[in-house]
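Researcher: Structure prediction, please.
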Amino acid sequence: MNMKKIINDKKNLLTDMLSGYAKSHKDRVVLEGNILYRKNKKDPKKVAVIIGNGSGHEPAMIDLVGEGLFDANVCGQIFTAPSSVEMIKAVKKLHDYGHKDILILVSSHEGDILNAKMTLMLAKAEGIEPKMVVLWDDVSSAPKGMETERRGSAGLFFPFKVVCGAAEDGMNIDDLIRLAEKVRDNTRALSTAISGGTNPETGLKMFELPEDEIEVGMGVHGESGAHRMKLPTAHELVEYMLDIIVEDKPFVKGDDVLVLVNNAGSLTYLELYTIYDEIEKYLNKRGINVVRNWVGTYVTTQEMAGFSIALCKSDDEILKYYDYKADGPLFR
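Model: Predicted structure follows.
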């Protein structure tokens, strides 16, 4: 059964969305092709930071372009990484603005990594030498000890926000790479789905779940999870998820943490804040201190019903740039 979507021609999904987005945020972004650039350009002496991502996950990553955030977002087709040909356009444009140093943050998915590496090769041929950092956080996608094999998910908002803030503050590119890796290595995330989203190109559900079951460990593209289980209470589910997350780092008594509760698409705020209440109770009981939190819709898989929890162990450096002023719809 095809699901309903209010769209025009399916061939123009990305074009139509980006056109409307740029018009509604003309004070902050400029659209060129499928690339969003910040309107108020950063001092070219500072490092420019780029993200490339498949579309269909909005507000990620289109809402992350602006002052204190990304200098450019190269938007791929639905659930598809942008090509190296598209990525190099953004690199060259920012180089033309005067940025000698350009950093590409890459979510750990095969296509994203491959195209980012190709972009570095194309840039070198143009006499430009950007650098890249691969980011991951999803504990369900590879076992402990194999972190480099893990996928990127909503927890990447921590390194995105922190690194972009540090770049705006003038941090050099080598220290930005160090900081990105530090935040990445301090972050763990796990997701749960209670019903599947719909691919807007095909109109088909990505997966089906029985009414009384959930799937734990879903990827942001609807990739299958670690396992299915009967629908528990919010208390039982949060405890189950946090037991996995906390043990994986591990997070221990006395740690300061940043918390993100991400709505995968169609979860209600009644559910989200119930989940967050359970998270605080769990962490407080174990002496883990919540110093900042995000609760809302950040990375979606269309209208998938579900959520993810991400924790990031914080310190003074991370918190400084987490709190750095940013001009974007999610962080004003």
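Model: The helical segments are 13-24, 84-96, 110-125, 157-168, 173-185, 234-248, 269-285, 316-322.
Researcher: Thanks, that helps.
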